[in-house]
Amino acid sequence: MVELVTVGDTSLRLSPRDNERLETATDVRMYATGTESNVAVAASRFGTDAVWLSKLPETPLGRRVVSELHEHGIETQVDWSDDGRQGLTFYEPPCEPRERVRIDDRGSAAAATMTPGDLDMNLVQSASSVFVAGSTLALSETAAETGAAVLRAGSSGEGVSALELDYRPELWSPDAARETLTGVFDSVDVLFASEDDVRDVLDQSGQAREIAPTVAAEWGFQMVVLTRSEYGALVYHDGVIHDRDAIETEAVDETGQHDAFIGAFLATLLDGDGPDVALSNAVATAALARTIPGPLATVDDDEVERLVDSIDQSGF
């Protein structure tokens, strides 16, 4: 049985080197990046058997995505398409006082036409856990229906289905996101979200320790996990809130930290540990991911364990 199946779109990200601007750069770096594939890579670093499913164009760019993911040790199952294109993301990292620039060019991406028939739904249904992100559901009505089908299949047996709100205002409005995402909530066991996304998409107010149990009660989630940027993260489960402070690090690239957090959290749960241990590992993995160029978390469980132990011993 596969432990973790993630389903979703992966783009190719192009970023200027050496703090150049997008409008003047002549030299860029290319990375495969997608919430679901990033999560699968992070989970695999903990020994989780992770498979990423998607639909890609049968082009050099589509094959570039798969080859990079294979380099990071995850299995892929791709429906190769003659229609649609490879989605692109152009990213200029922040450099004080400049803010980051992100341009998503994902219109007509092959993944927008992905249907359940393009996927191995038996694999999805038999997995210990499935994961989908809101940024994939935002691509099209077809992608949203497919994401819903994956979550239903994942929660139909003994598996755990997990969703990340992953709200991106450049892809859809808060109202459109709320309508689509809440429509799949009845098939979701574990909800991941940033505190800001919960406020924007689910129209929640108050402190994070108040929001998490409210959201869990309203939509019947088994677990709600909120990331809080520089304030750390918390998880609400079975009437109990666990929280962890953020770990200060040098920020080389912050783009993959949230996905790394989710991957580590799911991997720890799948290994049989509780949400408190999962939260500690997730916060540590996110901190390490911030020190690595690119969106993929090339960490290992030993360094995560050492970081968690050092934080515990210091009393923070």
TrEMBL record:
SUPFAM superfamilies in alphabetical order: Ribokinase-like
InterPro entries (alphabetical): PfkB_Carbo_kinase, PfkB_dom, Ribokinase-like
Domain Carbohydrate kinase PfkB as annotated: residue spans: 3-296
GO molecular function: kinase activity
Entry-linked Pfam families: PfkB
Entry keyword set: Kinase, Transferase
Keyword Isomerase belongs to the record: no
Transmembrane segments: none
Family: Belongs to the carbohydrate kinase PfkB family.
Name the UniProt record assigns to this protein: Sugar kinase
